[in-house]
Specification:
single chain, mainly alpha, Na+/H+ antiporter like fold, 0% strand
Length: 324
Amino acid sequence: MQKILFPLVLIVTGLVLGYLWQQWAKKRGSGAERSIPVIRKRLQKICLLFFMPISFVAALWVVSFQDIRVVILPVIGAGALLLGGLFGLGVAVILKKNGRQRGTLFCCGSFTNIGAVGALVAFVFLGEAGFALIALYRLFEDVIYYAIGFPIARYYSGVENEATFHQRISEVAKDPFVRAAIVAFSCGLALNLSGIPRPPFFEIVNSFFIPIGTFIILVSIGLGMRFSSVGDYLVEGVLVSVIKFIAVPLVAGSVAYALGFGDINDGLPLKVVLIASSMPVAFTALIAASIYDLDLNLANSCWMITTGALIVILPWLAFLFSVI
């Protein structure tokens, strides 16, 4: 029960604190309200450039890569993100949505909260080894988002996309958050392969850094939360939930099982795939909707509904892991 309650309490507390902070700033006046985007970016930098890189290095240092099949994890991760986007477009076609709403549903189907919520759940449920494999699973995540997802969102916005594929890849490579993730992964893998034993205190460091880093990023998300119009898009939110929590995990989990992931390290890679592919809509979907003038209310509703569904999904994952 503690494994279920801890991430739920941390997620809810972080989001609520961020939202209350946002409301307080609005009441304080325009000056305080204008500071919110700056604070959000600072919190994200603290998490993604300090807490998370150190945590991933420490976790990757000791994870077992004896079975070569785990190198397929990034491919499964990329496939799950693209598949979710295609399912989102399918829902948009079935519901006869307009172009901007189709772009929104693609983003909501594809963009998944792996880095914050997924990493936290993997750490709580599976320990450092699970947390480390999350880094491997999401290796191509930013490339999928910025080189494929954002251009598709822009296409449905009706704005001509002048950037070439090479230019988009170049922009991804220049992103400081992407660079930090690549450096952390490379350092952790190098230390793992070097055979140098990890100092014991890193286990204590990660037991604090992972929850703290996740909490900080959740507060930053809460600073941008909006509750408006959720009731107007319940059908879309439910269908996106079906994509996120049934369709994509079923396909990704089946592929992982067929590859024999259930036989590796007590099924650890299989469990990581099931966690990572069962996470809610990422806040990045709202960013894409805002940048490209898509249906922001639809994106916000799908994000709120799928994030709220974690109260059901986490117990389900805990039960599933107890029987596989």
